[in-house]
Amino acid sequence: MDTLLELHGSIFDQGRGYWIKIEAWQVRVSEHIPHGIRYSLTLHEPYGKRILGYDNAHAVKPPRKFRYAGRIIAYDHKHRHASDKGVPYMFKDAQQLLTDFFDDVDSVLSEVG
Predict the structure, then answer these.
(1) What is the mean pLDDT of each run of 10 residues along the chain (113 residues)?
(2) What long-range pairs does 85-91 form, CB within 8 A, spacing at least 24?
(3) Rg of the chain over CA atoms, in angstroms?
(4) Which residue, 52, 68, 84, 101, has fewest beta-carbon neighbours within 10 Å?
(5) In angstroms, rounded to a whole number, what is the distance separating the alpha carbons of residues 1 and 60?
(6) Which letter, b or e, does each residue of 78-108 get, where b requires 16 or more Cβ atoms within 10 Å of its Cβ?
């Protein structure tokens, strides 16, 4: 968790105008944030529009294919493209979060050429 917290406020140039912004701060442990870290990891295109994001700022509903009464509303989630409202992300730990995010960054940047 310390590494993630130390990256708070960091902006990383990804070349060709693309950039990453990382925000992470400690919060009170709660039902929706059991790990006690509020975070936002985002990849932006040259004009500033977010094209990938991982965060836990708001709840997202599980996909419609899960139609059972006890659905869990996830706070940890990712936005896979600019208009994606978010899909649940299974937060394991800060290291896995960073690994998953940077793997997706690599994938998105390879797709845009």
Answers:
(1) 96 98 96 93 97 90 57 80 90 96 97 88
(2) 85/60, 86/58, 86/60, 87/60, 87/63, 88/60, 88/62, 89/54, 91/35, 91/56
(3) 14
(4) 68
(5) 23
(6) bbeeeeeebebbebeebeebbebbeebbeeb
| pLDDT (0 to 100) of residue 92 | 95
How many other CB atoms sit within 10 Å of the CB of residue 19? 16
What is the pLDDT at residue 14?
97
- The token pair that represents 101 in the structure block: 């995010």
The count of other CB atoms within 10 Å of the CB of residue 33 is: 17
Cβ within 8 Å of residue 57, ≥6 positions away: 38, 40, 75
